Amino acid sequence: MLAEYEAAPHGEKSAVLRREGIHQTQVAEWAKARDAATEGRPYRRDRKPRSKESSSAGRLVKLEAENKRLERQLAQTQAALRVMGKAHELLEMLSESTNESRPPARSQR
Q1: Is the Cα torsion angle 76, 77, 78, 84 positive or negative in sign?
Q2: How big is the CA angle at 19 (ends 18 and 25), to the nearest 5 degrees?
């Protein structure tokens, strides 16, 4: 895969990546690993340690998004409860008006 990517003409490299479903950064890592093996040294991928600030900032963003989602859900639930309360009141009124409009029951002898 790496040889095919490197052999592709300048304008066609991205087509190779899309066809294989990989990113250019993966190809770069493979090339570094290959070069390290050729030189007889171990290859270790460079990783930047996460700072506490960036992880807490990311957590804050997630918590704010969750808070907004929960606020929307609460507003929907409150609206549904108001509608259900009004429907209950309407059914009570209809029930009372039905009972009032019926003629009194005759006693059977």
Answers
A1: positive
A2: 45
Biggest alpha carbon–alpha carbon distance for the chain: 114
Rounded CA-CA distance 79/88 in Å is: 14
User: And the tokens for 78?
Assistant: 């409150």
pTM over 0.70? The answer is no
Measured distance CA(32)–CA(41) in Å, rounded: 11
Sign of CA dihedral 70, 53, 29, 18: positive
Element (DSSP H or E) covering residue 15:
helix 13-20
Give the contacts of 37 (CB within 8 A, at least 6 positions apart): 43
**Residue 30 contacts residue 2 (beta carbons within 8 Å):** yes
Provide Rg for the chain, Cα atoms.
35
In the prediction, which pLDDT does 50 show?
Answer: 64
